[in-house]
Amino acid sequence: MTYAFTFEVPIDPATYARIKEGLGPDKPRGLVAHLVHRTPGGLRYTDVWESEADWKRFVEERLHPVVDQVVTAALGFRPPEPAVEQLEMVDAWIGG
Fold this sequence. Notes:
The structure is a single chain. Helix 1 packs across helix 2. A four-stranded antiparallel beta sheet has the order 2-3-1-4. It is of the alpha+beta class. The chain is globular, with a radius of gyration of 13 Å. It is built from two helices and four strands; from the N terminus they run E-H-E-E-H-E. A hairpin with a 2-residue loop joins strand 2 and strand 3. The chain starts with a strand and ends in a 9-residue tail after the last strand.
């Protein structure tokens, strides 16, 4: 079952770029789409995954280790997990 969500984080594009660099070039297994845009408070992510299990595996194995290092260095502390708004997907039309 497709899993989609959106959340906002209090970081700038430079910090986001360091996170992406730390994750490496390999696309996460199960990722359908990852969109990021600026907001007044930082950046908002909107993700679509093949399953919630794929997302959780990525978070534990790859994302949290990098975010813990990069964000803590950038902000001087580890902020709490952002509030996630789950989205009820109807369609994801991805070009390619």
